[in-house]
Write a structure and sequence with these properties.
This protein is of the alpha/beta class. Helices cover 53% and strands 16% of the residues. An 8-stranded mixed β-sheet has the order 7-5-6-4-1-2-3-8, sandwiched between helices. The chain is elongated. The structure holds uridine-5'-diphosphate and magnesium ion (MG). Uridine-5'-diphosphate binds next to β1 and α3.
Length: 323
């Protein structure tokens, strides 16, 4: 019998409230899948991203009770991107599915995703949110703007509404792991590696429990990171602005010469306006370059993307020693 292992990768940050619900749900789904497809095995790999609540204690307990439960616990909070990377790096499965702990990515979609990938037609199945119900209007507006901008200036197509709920083949996971960048923008990375992806359209689901860690400013920062990770177009902005300003300056020169010939001197107001405008544009351009340099700086340092403090293996070994 051909055995296939599915790794379920779940980044968790302060999810003690929702994790028991998630666990029950994923067990139901995996049991159903095992009943339907013989030879399917599962592992549940949780990434504890420096939670300050009882998440780790819960994972320890789950891993003692159920040997399919594995976990990687970070030494501090490294962010969801690092969590996802650690999950992919530590997953042992022939297939890997990544999803959030809060049940906003319903586990009952996994069988459908598996069918798409198993058919051989697709290397990946992912969900795509088509409605933005329950989201503040302003946030939806900025989200749409973000996708318009990034798809306008980047070669890598970023699908509007695509979520990090993905079922992938080992081949695709290895391709993602071959991208060593420190500043990780998964939405772009998934698309950059290529492969055939089936998008399953879903409606927005509210969190089952606990609360989101995203704020408007965090999302804005994330959008800018995304643009910078997958487009260098902003670096060309100074050239573009420079050309326009040069033409404007030439036009001004002509006007000044004409006025001087007519006996009119330029006003101080025009001058101060011009100084402010030019100063602003120069600072903006320097700032954009500075941002890219700061990313380069972080990449050059090649720091690890996360630091592991504990895994279920370490925990169990230590416990056995104590006994
Ligand atoms: N998450 C994480 N590290 C963080 C923030 C979030 O691992 O620093 C996890 C979180 O536990 C959840 C997923 O990433 O499983 C999505 O987070 P959240 O629900 O807060 O985001 P939203 O669904 O609002 O985009
Ligand atoms: Mg969520």
């Amino acid at each position: 019998m051909d055995k296939k292992l599915i790794s379920v990768v779940v980044p968790c940050y302060n999810e003690e409230e929702v994790l028991p619900l998630f666990y029950d749900e994923i067990i139901k789904v995996s049991d159903d899948m095992k009943a339907e497809h013989s030879g399917l095995e599962f592992e549940f790999l949780f990434i504890n991203d420096g939670s300050g609540d009882g998440t780790l204690a819960l994972l320890r307990r789950l891993s003692e009770r159920d040997e399919r439960v594995r976990y990687v616990s970070f030494s501090r909070n490294f962010g969801k991107e690092a969590g996802l990377f650690a999950g992919l790096e530590n997953a042992r499965g022939d297939y890997v599915v990544t999803l959030d702990a809060d049940l906003q990515h319903p586990p009952r979609l996994i069988p459908q995703m598996y069918d798409y990938v198993r058919s051989g037609e697709y290397d990946c199945a992912a969900t795509r949110r088509i409605s933005r119900e329950g989201e503040p209007k302003l946030l939806s507006f900025f989200s749409r703007m973000f996708y318009k901008i990034i798809n306008g200036i980047s070669q890598t197509q970023i699908i509007d509404g695509a979520q990090d709920f993905r079922f992938m083949t080992r081949q695709m996971v290895d391709a993602i792991l071959s991208m060593p960048e420190y500043n990780r923008f998964s939405k772009g990375i998934f698309s950059w590696v290529g492969f055939e992806t089936k998008y399953i359209e879903v409606n927005n689901t509210e969190r089952a429990a606990g609360k989101t860690t995203w704020s408007f400013w965090k999302l804005l920062k994330y959008s800018i990171e995304g643009i910078m990770a997958f487009s260098t177009a902003p670096l060309a902005l100074p050239i573009f602005l420079g050309i326009i300003l040069l033409i404007a300056a030439l036009a001004l020169l002509v006007i000044l010469i004409v006025r001087a010939c007519a006996g009119n001197a330029g006003s101080a107001l025009t001058l101060s306006f011009l100084f402010t405008l030019l100063g602003g544009i120069q600072l903006l351009c320097t700032g954009i370059m500075g941002q890219y340099i700061s990313k380069l700086y972080l990449e050059a340092k090649a720091r690890p993307k996360y630091i592991v403090k504990e895994t279920e293996e370490l925990y169990k070994n230590n416990k056995n020693k104590e006994c």
